[in-house]
Amino acid sequence: MTDDEILQQLYDDTLVGNAPSVLALTNQGLEQGMDPERMLYEALIPSLEEVGARFERGDFFVPEMLIAGRAMAGALEVLRPLLAQTGAETVGKFLMGTVKGDVHDIGKNLVNIMLEGAGFEVIDLGVQVAPEKFVAAIQEHEPDVVGFSAFLTTTMPMFKANINALQKAGLREKVIVMVGGAPVTQEYADAVGADGYAADASAAVKRAKELIQQRRAMVPAAT
């Protein structure tokens, strides 16, 4: 296969979630001397963006997003160390966790996959993440964005507890806060003082990019 044929097949197979083929093509591309960044930015990321677009139009649903995301995740496992060596630019660093008292992670994991697919570096703290753990992780990793996920209405108040903990630690102004989860609304996100909200994984990627661009655009003006 030519390089262009590999890119096209990678795009097509990621779209339908054919994980074994995506992995095989990624390895084949590397064996042929293809640039890891080219495979990521000309095939894998555009394919996942198309998955997101189809989801928004109602042509794809969560299962299709998950299998496409998993197919891409397999390729990323191979490409990630190579991309790190080449110094490939990441869009930003995103720290993610499901709040204390909540063990749901399917939505969070889907968002993580979509973020990675869009070129973010993702640090996943898992589930049942206490405010102090978020604070310690922000101090350690210095992310651009921190995401709080909640699936239960009973755990949604943890958003405010987490934001309060960030304020107390002097970190609130240093990080963009995004919230999400099945019962969460834009109104609730506004009420707790979050910077951003997204209803689904595709929207989360878009919103995170927008918020980072806005933040970076403001920095030169502030200096």
List the SSEs and their pairings.
Elements: H1 3-15, H2 19-31, H3 36-57, H4 62-86, E1 93-98, H5 106-117, E2 121-124, H6 131-141, E3 145-149, H7 158-168, E4 176-180, H8 186-192, E5 196-197, H9 201-222
Parallel strand pairs: 1-2, 1-3, 3-4, 4-5
Structure summary:
By secondary structure, the protein is an alpha/beta fold. It is 61% helix and 10% strand.
What distinguishing features does this structure have?
alpha/beta, Methyltransferase, Methionine Synthase (B12-binding Domains), Chain A, domain 1, Rossmann fold, 2 domains, 5-stranded parallel beta sheet, 9 helices, 61% helix, 10% strand
Task: Give an overview of the whole structure.
The protein is α/β, with parallel strands linked by helices and 223 residues long. It folds into two domains: 3-86, Methyltransferase, Methionine Synthase (B12-binding Domains), Chain A, domain 1 (Orthogonal Bundle); 93-222, Rossmann fold (3-Layer(aba) Sandwich), CATH 3.40.50. The protein has nine helices and five strands. It has helices at residues 3-15, 19-31, 36-57, 62-86, 106-117, 131-141, 158-168, 186-192, 201-222; strands spanning 93-98, 121-124, 145-149, 176-180, 196-197. The chain has a five-stranded parallel sheet with strand order 2-1-3-4-5, sandwiched between helices. The longest helix has 25 residues, at 62-86. It is globular.
Q: Considering the protein shown, what is the CATH homologous superfamily of the largest domain? A: Cobalamin-binding domain
The strands making up the biggest β-sheet line up spatially as 2-1-3-4-5
The span between the termini is: 51 Å
CATH architecture of the largest domain: 3-Layer(aba) Sandwich
CATH secondary-structure class of the largest domain: Alpha Beta
- Shape label: globular
